């Protein structure tokens, strides 16, 4: 200020009129700087700040054109966002190129009234824009920390050359502009950050909502007792979440290749369940055929719209959202939702939610089908194993029947023929009993017929049967009846239990061995023991020995024999146990109340 006062004093001594003019110019410059400060302070929009700075700089310095350059540090370039007048909207050049670039790198202002004579001058910009630069003033821009942001330049003063006071004015403008640009940038960054936070918050809310939806659907699947309950419950949830008037789940019928309505809720839903769609027919048929979703808010105008179905069920489909149900082998159906309530339209978010729900429906259907297929396979396997066991058990009595029938043909003694006939009838009765016992086991029946049984005769029949069954197998049989009195039990079923244990023993002793049956009375209990000299029970199945279909890989094993033994004993209110030692055989003990 002291230097300026001295300057004004010197001017006033020489020419008072010149002093007045100098004061007027100073006031004008001060007013220009103040006006620029007010203008750029009135907005936080960066583009608007740049436009105002360029416009007011040209006015304040009486320049033909002004340009404001900013540094792009990522690309090491200098660029101009706004160019006054006609021409390019953006200029880019390497950082340090041209006089403005030099001013940025060296953080120094420049005044040059013959710019082209300066070796730092970049002629490329004039060549591209067609503008002819004669003179220029350049001032660096700084942020609030003092770092260089860029540079502002004024070109070609219209009423002569630029003076030192013009450079001072430009530096004052640059100071205002730097602060304004920094504020605008910070505001813009904050706006972007707020927008990102808002987006993240909305995305998080959507994710939480989707997780809640998936959790609720999973709960519905767990609580349902059948596939029909599952799809009805999930469809009801989909209709509620997406706020639609009606919805349906269609599944593919493999035999016919058609789609049928597995579940439908809304107007005419019961009528819908009688409709079949050909693959590709209607919007749902098209989705099932292509595997691609369809979202239309003008359903009647969609090329896949099926007017036949609409007329048949008399429902006006204004808007339709349909997504495929996919399984491992391909599309297995479709989820279709109709008419958002309150005349709203379907949106992309609705498509995402519907796709999530469809995924859960697909999984539920796939699991149900796998379960049904597994149960069917298990039933068929059980039937096969049971039949195998029955046929194997029939082999011995059928052999006896065949043998005694042949004897009757060549036997002339009437008494012997009658004896053979009685044996045949007994074996046929035994075959009938085995069949009934197996069927009763399969059906879970528990009826038994208790009657008096003479144990000496019972022991003889067991001996006779097992001798024929063990014939040619190298097995020594011993039947010991320590108690020969009378007991009450179901004779046929108990024979079946003993035969099953004996058959297991024979299978366990392919090289031969010994099998012993003893019948005793201990207190109030009838005790039957069956012992073999086989390899013993494998530890892997010892704790599951009496379960159905448990076997240790025997050639003809079905896994039903000992399960039937346990069932028979339980029906008699008795108990069956076993003791086994590796390499020393196994003993089964049956205890029945007398």
> Largest sheet, described in full?
6 strands, antiparallel
CATH architecture of the largest domain: 2-Layer Sandwich
> What's the total number of strands?
19
CATH topology annotation of the largest domain: Beta-Lactamase
Shape: elongated
Write down the CATH class of the largest domain.
Alpha Beta
How far the N terminus sits from the C terminus, by CA atoms, comes to 131 Å
Determine the strand fraction and express it as a percent band: 15-25%
Structural class: alpha+beta
**Estimated radius of gyration:** 51 Å
- Helical amount among residues, as a percent range? 40-55%
- Unreliably modeled segments: 1-12
Supply the number of helical segments: 16
Average pLDDT over all residues: 81
Can you offer a commentary on this structure?
With 594 residues, the chain is of the alpha+beta class. It folds into three domains: 189 residues, GAF domain (Beta-Lactamase, 2-Layer Sandwich); 144 residues, Beta-Lactamase (2-Layer Sandwich); 148 residues, Heat Shock Protein 90, CATH 3.30.565. It is 52% helix and 22% strand. It contains 16 helices and 19 strands. The strands form four sheets. Strands 3-2-1-6-5-4 form a six-stranded antiparallel beta sheet, sandwiched between helices. A hairpin with a 4-residue loop joins strand 7 and strand 8. Helix 1 runs antiparallel to helix 2, helix 2 runs parallel beside helix 6 and helix 7 runs antiparallel to helix 11. It is elongated, with a radius of gyration of 51 Å.
């Amino acid at each position: 200020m002291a230097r300026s006062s001295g300057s004004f004093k010197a001017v006033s001594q020489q020419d008072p009129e010149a002093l007045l003019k100098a004061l007027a110019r100073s006031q004008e410059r001060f007013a220009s700087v103040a006006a620029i400060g007010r203008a750029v302070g009135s907005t936080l929009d960066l583009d608007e700040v740049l436009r105002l700075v360029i416009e007011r700089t040209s006015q304040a310095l009486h320049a033909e054109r002004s340009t404001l350059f900013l540094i792009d540090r990522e690309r090491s370039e200098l660029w101009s966002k706004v160019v006054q007048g006609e021409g390019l909207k953006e200029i880019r050049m390497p950082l340090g190129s041209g006089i403005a670039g030099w001013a940025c790198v060296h953080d120094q202002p420049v005044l040059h009234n013959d710019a082209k004579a300066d070796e730092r001058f970049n002629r490329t910009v004039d060549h591209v824009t067609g503008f002819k630069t004669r003179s220029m003033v350049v001032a660096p821009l700084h942020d609030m920390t003092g770092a260089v942001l860029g540079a502002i330049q004024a070109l070609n003063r219209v009423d002569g050359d630029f003076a030192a006071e013009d450079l001072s004015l430009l530096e004052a403008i640059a100071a205002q502009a730097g602060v304004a640009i920094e504020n605008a940038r910070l505001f813009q960054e904050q706006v972007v950050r707020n927008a990102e936070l808002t987006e993240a918050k909305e995305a998080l809310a959507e994710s939480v909502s989707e997780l809640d939806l998936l959790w609720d659907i999973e709960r519905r699947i767990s609580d349902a007792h059948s596939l029909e309950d599952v799809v009805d419950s999930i469809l009801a949830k989909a209709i509620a979440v997406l706020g639609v008037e009606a919805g349906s789940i269609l599944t593919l019928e493999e035999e016919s290749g058609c789609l049928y309505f597995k579940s439908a809720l809304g107007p005419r839903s019961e009528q819908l369940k009688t409709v079949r769609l050909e693959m590709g027919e209607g919007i749902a048929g098209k989705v099932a055929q292509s595997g691609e979703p369809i979202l239309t808010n003008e359903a009647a105008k969609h090329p896949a719209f099926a007017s036949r179905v609409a007329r048949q069920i008399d429902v006006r489909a204004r808007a339709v959202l349909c997504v495929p149900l996919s399984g491992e082998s391909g599309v297995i159906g479709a989820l279709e939702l109709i008419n958002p309530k309150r005349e709203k339209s379907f949106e992309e978010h609705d498509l995402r939610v519907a796709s999530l729900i469809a995924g859960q429906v697909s999984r539920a259907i796939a699991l149900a089908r796998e379960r049904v297929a597994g149960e069917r396979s298990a039933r068929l396997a059980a039937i096969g194993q049971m039949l195998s066991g029955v046929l194997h058990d029939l082999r011995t009595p059928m052999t006896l029947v065949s043998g005694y029938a042949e004897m009757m043909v060549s036997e002339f003694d009437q008494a012997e023929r009658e004896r053979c006939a009685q044996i045949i009838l007994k074996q046929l009765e035994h075959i009938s009993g085995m069949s009934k016992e197996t069927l009763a086991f399969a059906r879970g029946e528990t009826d038994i017929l208790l009657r008096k049984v003479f144990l000496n005769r019972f022991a003889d029949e067991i001996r006779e049967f097992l001798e024929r069954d063990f014939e040619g197998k190298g097995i020594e049989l011993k039947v010991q009846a320590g108690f020969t009195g009378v007991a009450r039990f179901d004779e046929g079923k108990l024979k079946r239990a003993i035969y099953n244990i004996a058959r297991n023993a024979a299978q366990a002793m392919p090289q031969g061995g010994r099998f012993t049956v003893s019948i005793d009375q201990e207190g109030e209990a009838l005790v039957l023991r069956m012992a073999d000299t086989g390899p013993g029970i494998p530890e892997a199945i010892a704790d599951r020995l009496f379960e159905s279909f448990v076997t240790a890989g025997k050639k003809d094993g079905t896994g039903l024999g000992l399960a039937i033994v346990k069932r028979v004993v339980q029906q008699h209110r008795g108990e069956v146990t076993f003791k086994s030692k590796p390499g020393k055989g196994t003993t089964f003990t049956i205890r029945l109340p007398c």
